[in-house]
Amino acid sequence: MLILGIESSCDETGVALYDTDKGLIADALHTQIEMHRLYGGVVPELASRDHIRRIIPLLNEVMKKAGKTPQDLDAVAVTEGPGLAGALLVGNSVAYGIGLALNISVVGIHHLEGHLLSSLLAEDKPSFPFVALLVSGGHTQIMEVRALGDYELLGETLDDAAGEAFDKTAQALGYSYPGGPAVSALAEKGTPGAIELPRPLIHAPNLDFSFSGLKTAVMNTVRKEPKPLSQEFKNNLARAFVDSVTDVLVTKCLKALKKTGNKSLVAAGGVSANKQLRARLTEACRRRGVKVFFPPQNLCTDNGAMIAAAAGAHLAEIKDLRNKKQGGFSIKPRWSLEHPNDND
Ligand code: ATP
Ligand code: MG
Ligand code: FE
């Protein structure tokens, strides 16, 4: 089954072609990071307009790359929410337009479910059940994934997301958004223990996180340091930050695995691209006989492939696609993954 995946919930326009037997066939992405940089954050109206500009050329690009025509498509998958309303409307209008024109199903996917299932695009794929660590720009959550569509939130951040903490740390050290990769590269050259930072909630009995105090500690350390900041200081502070965040994330994952009795862990979201986090999780899981899974490095942040793969997993459970009742055009700017039918 050939599925066209479309993602347009925030500042990335992602389009992909995914074959349920062969996997990802073609992928195209445009990120608006440069455009929003001028304003210090994502400007919703500009984001919507840019999705409008990019989406059709990206669609043509994946079709051409894959050597496919619209008639080859069996279904369209699109991010239905959560996200920016105007941005979601662009992807969904295109998806439903194609669905109507070709008389094929359109499947609305929850953006976080897309992240959660993005490791289905890796060579080594997880099977249910598993514990999931979702670490992205907007979320830091630990979930128990019992089956497709059966997600229980075990803990989440009480304030900032892990990705946000990476971005703020990068900013304090003079690097622009997205700061994760820059902080990771600096940390590689830093000396462990040269600077000490707090590890918020690491000993708390629950599975919640808090990163705003860590962010403040980073800012205070920078404030006290003579300017201009030396390269050695930047490296060491980045090292201290990465060690603190990874310690907390790894500790909470192990707690969740113990609590639920699961033997598989899946990391997902932009921060799961982080080299140090991957190494620490891999080592901790290896010692406990737990299997750990990651999305492909380039598919951790937003993309159309994860949306198509999530739809592929759902469609595999439906025997006759033609009889699938279409949900109809809708977007959900706010949408709970754990309780998807609750409206707010
Ligand atoms: P959400 O999915 O929660 O709505 P989002 O889609 O904006 O948020 P993602 O695209 O999944 O988030 O992730 C973006 C975040 O990932 C940014 O904060 C970025 O700094 C971080 N990130 C990307 N690469 C790395 C890396 N190598 N190390 C650490 N952080 C990283
Ligand atoms: Mg983004
Ligand atoms: Fe995302």
UniProtKB/TrEMBL annotation:
One of its GO terms (cellular component) is cytoplasm. NCBIfam families: gcp_kae1, T6A_TsaD_YgjD. It comes from Parasutterella excrementihominis YIT 11859. Keywords: Acyltransferase, Cytoplasm, Hydrolase, Iron, Metal-binding, Protease, Transferase, tRNA processing. GO terms for biological process: proteolysis; tRNA threonylcarbamoyladenosine modification. Residues 24-308 form the Gcp-like domain. Substrate binds at residues 134-138, 167, 180, 274. This is tRNA N6-adenosine threonylcarbamoyltransferase. It is found in: Cytoplasm. Its cofactor is Fe(2+). The gene is tsaD.
